[in-house]
């Protein structure tokens, strides 16, 4: 980021809160499956259900929260969702200490955390749009993206070491505390947030739950981008488990080599995020969005060529580096484009619908590709996902959209 872009004290607190909670999440990454396996002696079906069913149920719970949050101030919602995640996660070490931890509790906590995470993401996008002028949104989103990839580099090794020394329950405590610190940071941001207009009806109607999807599908530029994002994220995430099976099983790589192959290329995401604003300034938002969205689709199919030993490890790292670099460039541009194309009174519902669809799509495709991996082998299933990814650029917006009409300015106090 260029040094001259100072986004203010409130954004600084929001940024710090985001980084703190993201670090806690990565420290505890994989803790739930490990607790299920090591503490509760769960089988493969239960571990798979913990990941897929928890995410799907959390997405379903989050659906009515989008319209509910739309007509409330967003900062208290952000603080509330952080505190919900803090309290839910803290029940796990408490139950473990008392000897009453169960698989059902793990599943319920994963549902609550997933729902709170979706609601937090939707409310944070709306809060960011009220916090900053439009010309600073790309800088802010690029900083969030840079933070994500920086923590992706350092978080898993630290989390792995913490799990090895203290056990997975300890990392869940760290994750819970990170949400508490995030809530305190957002509260410290202060400032006056404008009160949203009151909803016309006293009660939420069933049709209100679909408002976010209606808005997306009615917009000629958001609609293709929505389908592109859901399809791309679902296919990429669906291959993670298959790549682990291929590398750790058939090809004989050690766990540290597998971790290195996935963590080291995250530096590409950091560089991609830092280049987002200069490239948009030079070439325009739409061109960068389309080019980065096209380039990120070509890499995954290369994983079908991975072999054993050093050559195979370098191939995985090279493919992941290219993929993550393009994603690091695409993501902040896409997030800014989406905020700019969404009316202020529809942001929370739209972002909630977007996130719910993405998470549900990822969970379903992960389950489907697990079945395909068992039937066809992990290499063939990864190749099929890579070929399907080559079609995703067809879903990118064809042309730059006209900006949304700004609302009439409020009358002056004078």
Number of helices: 17
Q: Could you spell the SSE succession in H and E letters?
A: HHHHHHHHHHHHHHHHH
Q: Which ranges are low-confidence, i.e. pLDDT below 50, for 5 or more consecutive residues?
A: 406-414
CATH architecture assignment of the largest domain = Up-down Bundle
Structural domains: how many: 2
Going by CATH, the homologous superfamily of the largest domain would be: MFS general substrate transporter like domains
What fraction of residues sit in β-strands?
under 5%
Number of strands: 0
Shape: globular
Radius of gyration (Å): 21 Å
**CATH topology label of the largest domain:** Growth Hormone, Chain: A
Largest sheet: none
Rounded mean pLDDT score: 86
Question: Quaternary arrangement of the chains shown?
Answer: single chain
In short:
The chain has 414 residues and is an all-alpha fold. The protein has helices at 9-27, 31-39, 44-62, 65-70, 74-98, 103-131, 137-166, 168-189, 211-218, 222-238, 240-250, 255-263, 266-283, 285-295, 309-341, 347-376, 378-389.
